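Entry: GPAT2 acyltransferase
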Amino acid sequence: VQDAASDRDPAGDEGSRRRREEEICRILGEIQAPLCPLLLRLCHWLLPKLLTRLFLSVQLHRGQLEMVLRAASTPEVPLVFLCSHQSQMDGLLLSFVLLSQGVGLPRVAVGARTSPRLRSLLQRLGGIFLPPGLAQTRSGRDKGLPAAVLDAYVQEVLRSRQPLVLFLEEPAAPRRLADPARLWLLRLLRALRDRAVPDVLVVPVGIAYDVAP
């Protein structure tokens, strides 16, 4: 991050350093926000009531869930869930399942097409977003300060062993790797290349609905 900031403004005086720090904090604020414990408890109470109104039942494969719980107990290795994506409910549903089963509250990568108010709410519930300047990058050859801050952020999430949830596709375009997913996967590869973590446990997740909400 320091190298990318210095490339943008190599002068190095006190004023330029302060501007770089403010820019880095602004980019980080676009990616995440502090979690809100009260909002998390409220959603954990409300979500089962919402799910019972939307669905007749929610079914989990018990054997596969036991495998995930064993994987979550592996020391020093973070969990990364790579998910199909059929509905805007997927992130809330999967977060609720992981939290209720003791895996922990995941950081969920959310699509770029989100209103500012909804974005602010989801960030405080564990959602993470691409910086706006990077979200429009279609090529994997991104660079600059937003990319450096995002790389550092993902590496810190993995080091702290917070579960990370990445949706590989958009609900409107199933079976095709979405551009945001490509950028998030690039962060994982860079974290492994730079040895930020010794390894990651990749968990494929399939969510199916009789009728998608």
